[in-house]
Specification:
Elements: E1 6-18, E2 21-26, E3 29-35, E4 38-39, H1 53-64, E5 68-73, E6 86-92, H2 98-104, E7 109-110, H3 121-133
Helix pairs in contact: 2-3
Length: 142
Amino acid sequence: MDGPGEFYATAEAYDVIDGDTFRVRIDGEAIRVRVLGINAPESGGFREEQDWGEEAKDYAREKLQGRTVHLFTDPGAEVYDQYDRLLAHVVMENGINYAVLAVADGMAEAYVLRHQDLTIGDTLEKAEDLAQAADRGMWQDD
């Protein structure tokens, strides 16, 4: 399978934490995955819930939980963040990149740090422009 970066693993997503973070098991080890290139509103837990946080979490559950995902690291990003989460592009079974879909549907913002050169950075920014123009998801409250 081809992806936007270096192949890391194929696994089943479980325990969606919020719209941009979930867990998988790889070789029996539970691994937290932070989806590269997006930032979804907070759904509570350790941080205060934000507008659209619960909707973004429900969206991620619908698209990811209990489904096989393909994880890819990116040559322009670290492999793990300061919270020991795997930073990965997430490609769903149907071949669609979850980050691009979530941004296009207004469930997350494009989030590319200045020092990153993500392989899909431009695509994410265009998806966000389209979501804003169409007042999708969290953008309808703007």
